[in-house]
Specification:
With about 325 residues, the protein is α+β, with helices and mostly antiparallel strands. The protein is built from 12 helices and 9 strands. The longest helix has about 35 residues.
Length: about 325
């Protein structure tokens, strides 16, 4: 290779180097101490006849200086380039899509906030329960017909997925001394046919208030206040007698739907079961019914969310349908 050819090739390599690594490779290729192409020529000068040495020597040295200068210049260029941010600030940004809370979580948060404001503590309980806590301790013995209504998914002979949040009443009363007032939000499970207002898996919020003089009038005030804060002052609610083995007397609370677009407009929708805690239940947790009494309730969270957000079918909550979820 002639010096002219070597120069052309080296200048082209230096010019085309895209980064410091490629530039270093070009330097080694031509000026590397051991095998650099120009270095080899310089080393072999001593073997040339005197006359040729005098001609080639200065040319080769001049080329070395020229290549060194070219390498230096290119290195500075590359350094400058990499320190300039390659962001095009005029380009339209990519919109980050933020997630949001599920309507049932929104409803649970609202309920917690209202009850916390009424001085209730918030506690949680296990979703897998024993037969004892789910039924027997709540005055529902093995062959009680009400058990049919609440049969569920059994894990083994003694354990089941809880059918309501009421077992937490027992667990709490066993370990705490009155007076107290709590709510227990949580998921419950039932073996039943689904329809627009029934799911096999849904949420309840249990409430329990025990003290020396707690009575039904207190329950009525607390629940009226709760619905007033949740749905507004004009909400109509009604208390209706009902039966649950773990309360005496027992009742249910209905809300009047006021939504001209709903097939339930002007109809009453049952939203909770409640009552005064049965003396047998208090006895069972070693609280003297003559000393302590109180009320308990269990409300259906989906039903309240359906009223608040005007949702016609409970199954939409668990459908995973983005057209539904994205509306919240
Ligand atoms: C009663 C008295 C107490 O002192 C304390 C709690 C209770 C409530 C009782 N543990 C219970 O579970 N009653 S319930 O079967 O009537 O359910 C309570 C609420 O859960 C209902 O009013 C309804 O709002 C909701 N619910 C019931 N079954 C449902 C349902 N929601 C959706 N799908 C279902 N399958």
């Amino acid at each position: 290779m002639t010096l002219a050819e070597l120069k052309e090739s080296a200048i082209s390599d230096i010019k085309n180097a895209k980064d410091a690594k490629e530039l270093e490779a070009a330097k080694v290729k031509y000026l590397g101490r051991k095998e650099g192409q120009l270095t080899n020529i310089l080393k072999s000068l001593k073997n040339l006849p005197e006359e040729e040495k005098r001609k080639v020597g200065p040319e080769a040295n001049a080329l070395r200086q020229e290549l060194e200068a070219a390498l230096d210049k290119k290195l500075k260029e590359l350094a400058k380039k990499s320190s300039v941010p390659s962001i095009d600030v005029t380009r339209p940004g990519v919109k980050v899509r933020a997630g949001h809370l599920h309507p049932l979580t929104l409803m649970e948060n609202d309920i917690k906030t209202i009850f916390a404001g009424l001085n209730f503590s918030i506690v949680e309980g296990p979703e897998v329960e024993t037969e004892h806590y789910n039924f027997e301790a709540l005055n529902i013995p093995a062959n009680h017909p009400v058990k049919d209504m609440w049969d569920t998914f059994w894990i083994d002979a003694q354990h089941l997925l809880r059918t309501h949040t009421s077992p937490m009443q027992i667990r709490y009363m066993e370990t705490h001394k009155p007076p107290f007032q709590i709510i227990v939000p949580g998921r419950v499970f039932r073996f039943e046919a689904t329809d627009a207002s029934h799911e096999i898996n849904f949420y309840q919020v249990e409430g329990l208030m025990i003290g020396e003089k707690v009575n039904l009038a207190n329950f009525k005030y607390i629940i009226s206040e709760f619905f007033r804060q949740l749905f507004g002052v004009n909400t109509e609610i009604r208390f209706r007698p009902s039966y649950f083995p773990f309360v005496e007397p027992g009742l249910e609370v209905d809300i009047k739907i006021q939504d001209p677009g709903s097939p339930l407009h002007n109809h009453w929708l049952e939203v909770m079961g409640a009552g005064m805690v049965h003396p047998k239940v208090l006895d069972g947790v070693k609280l003297n019914p003559k000393e302590f009494q109180g009320f308990a309730f269990g409300l259906g969270l989906e039903r309240l969310a359906m009223i608040k957000y005007k949702i016609p079918d409970i199954r939409l909550f668990y459908s995973g349908d983005l057209r539904f979820i994205n509306q919240f």
